Amino acid sequence: MAFRKAVKGTLIGGGAVATAFGLSQFFEYRKNQARLAYAEAQGELNVPYKDALPTREEQLSTLRNTEEFDVLVVGGGATGSGCALDAVTRNLKTALVERSDFSSGTSSRSTKLIHGGVRYLQKAIMKLDYEQYMMVKEALHERANLLNIAPHLSAPLPIMLPVYKWWQLPYYWAGIKMYDLVAGSQCLKSSYILSKSKALELFPMLKKDKLVGAIVYYDGQHNDARMNLAISLTAARHGAAIANYTEVVHLLKKPDPKSGQEKVCGAHCRDIITGQEFDIRAKCVINATGPFTDSLRKMDSQKTANICQPSAGVHIVIPGYYSPDNMGLLDPATSDGRVIFFLPWEKMTIAGTTDTPTEVTAHPIPVEDDINFILSEVRNYLSPDVEVRRGDVLAAWSGIRPLVTDPNSKDTQSICRNHIVNISDSGLVTIAGGKWTTYRSMAEETLDAAIKAHNLSAGPSRTVGLMLDGGKDWTPTLYIRLVQDYGLENEVAQHLAATYGGRSFEVAKMAKVTGKRWPIVGKRLVSEFPYIESEVQYAIKEYACTAIDVIARRTRLGFLNVQAADEALPRIVEIMGKELQWTEQKKNEELEAAKKFLHLEMGYKARSEQLSKTTEISLTAQEIARYKKRFYKFDKESKGFITTVDVQQVLEKLSIHIDENALHEILNEVDLNKNGQVELDEFLQLMCAVQRGQISDSRLAILMKTAEEGLDLRGPVSVDRSGGGV
């Protein structure tokens, strides 16, 4: 009865707030509907569409040889690519340059959610903040649009909010219902309350103690880097000249004939791949460089004040068994007031994020403190039966959010993720801040401002409902045709359909015959992931220039499992080298650069540092004796160390064959001295780290344990079989 009264009271209060906000936003709604009706009345897009993408060389040629573009966008992240797509679909002659790869920065390092922002709505209601409310409403509109225009790359995801106090149940329920209400007709699915038993049935890993129930609501999830790439490729197919690995050296200026004031009229650029420099002239230059916004603004004027305060957000990836296949988890109030998401993604589990001030860098590195903070918060919500181990972290990354703020502010957690559009005295248009979800509306607002400021001849935005690359011909059953027509594995076919959509047939056509009964085509890069070799070839058509582009953004292997990515690298470099005619020196450089990327930016360094010379050996005497016994089964001569030869001899007795190079790699993971051998102390440090959960999948530890068990089962070899083998 008390619970019903609480719910009823909350309903009345929530309804009052909803009514107030609904009335305050009525005219905004009418204005928005009128704008959309006007845009739709313009008919179909009257711009060319290229089914075959121009090569990167052709794009660079267009950039070099075009007398003047209407718009030059600097930055190939979600917002910059969105600006290019918005501009080109308004029949503006459009160029885009990106100094690294498309989505190489913040846009590939998100929480992978397409959402309005539950916590922003909470702040809007609690503080009666109209700006935050409108930001949430806009984001929810954009969420619906993004799910519609890229159905192959995105989908609704149910997210559970577990409740451990009775009074919180109606409180959170009212807030989530308000979220549904603000979404209106674009609500993905209605939220609902679960009993304790039902919540545990859907999320069995959840901590049972004191759980009173849960609330489930829906947001969108996507493959962020591939989504960014789809926006870029769609712009290119509509006629935009785009080029990655092309940096702006300095801005071009000329005096305005009327005022005599210096105006930005383009950029002097450098092709990082070849070193060639050239000018790109444009009537309007748009700065969409995310965290590097202020760098380009200072190219325009050294006196300009900073408008961005960067904030680092770290995410980790752990095995898929930590969460259900289709249910996320939201921790609304962590120990320090942050919000942590715990979500299934690409058959793994992603957890994050942190929110700490940082310096701007092109290569952010996840730090151990942030990784451990996330693990600690995850432990608070999972059952004690589930041991959350540091060693289960398969990858970790840090992304820099370009928050718009007063440069004197130090508290990044209270900063609104809204955006600003600024036009400098020289005409440089800057779009800064915002959220992944609202990239399209941000681009539209930016182009509207640019068209007005530079007197460009263009119609309204046409990007609402405009299908992104691969989305038009996608259907939920498309993967079945891939299996039937090409003989691909079911898992591989599903992956291709969910990554390339209608373009997946082009990837399948490039797949080579396996020589097996099944699958007929599609050689995997690594056995446990559905990425196949033909994707590397197709990645080059999608403007991949480096091995990092392939492991991080064309496929997501580097974000899912750094060890698997490391294993796939030699084959990736081999395929790319053949396609791009790399020299042996270039291949080695690419291999080393990619390994460095995995080591520093994808958490391999933090992972490997779990085992070091300073690791304390805190084992009991009984455990030490057991592990010494295991070690000496390999160190027959009691040398105090083992080498690949020692391991190979034991494995041969068990009729197990491991490639010599692979064996060297396995021992090298534990060889702290890097002297080509694993000493007893190093082995004991390894086993101690394994017991603590700091390391969970050491190949040497598993190999030696398996071999020991095999030797014990085998027992002594009988005389009559000693000459004939086993």
UniProtKB/TrEMBL annotation:
Main enzyme class: oxidoreductase
Originating species: Carassius auratus
PANTHER family given in the database record: GLYCEROL-3-PHOSPHATE DEHYDROGENASE (PTHR11985), GLYCEROL-3-PHOSPHATE DEHYDROGENASE, MITOCHONDRIAL (PTHR11985:SF15)
Pfam families xrefs: DAO, DAO_C, EF-hand_7
Similarity-based family: Belongs to the FAD-dependent glycerol-3-phosphate dehydrogenase family.
Single GO MF descriptor: glycerol-3-phosphate dehydrogenase (quinone) activity
UniProt cofactor(s): FAD
Protein location: Mitochondrion
SUPFAM superfamilies in the record: EF-hand, FAD-linked reductases, C-terminal domain, FAD/NAD(P)-binding domain
Any GO BP: glycerol-3-phosphate metabolic process
Gene Ontology CC: mitochondrion
Reactions mediated catalytically: a quinone + sn-glycerol 3-phosphate = dihydroxyacetone phosphate + a quinol
The protein's name in its UniProt record: Glycerol-3-phosphate dehydrogenase, mitochondrial
Domain EF-hand, residue spans: 622-657, 658-693
Main location: mitochondrion
EC number: 1.1.5.3
InterPro entries (alphabetical): DAO_C (IPR031656), DAO_C_sf (IPR038299), EF-hand-dom_pair (IPR011992), EF_Hand_1_Ca_BS (IPR018247), EF_hand_dom (IPR002048), FAD-dep_OxRdtase (IPR006076), FAD/NAD-bd_sf (IPR036188), G3P_DH_FAD-dep (IPR000447)
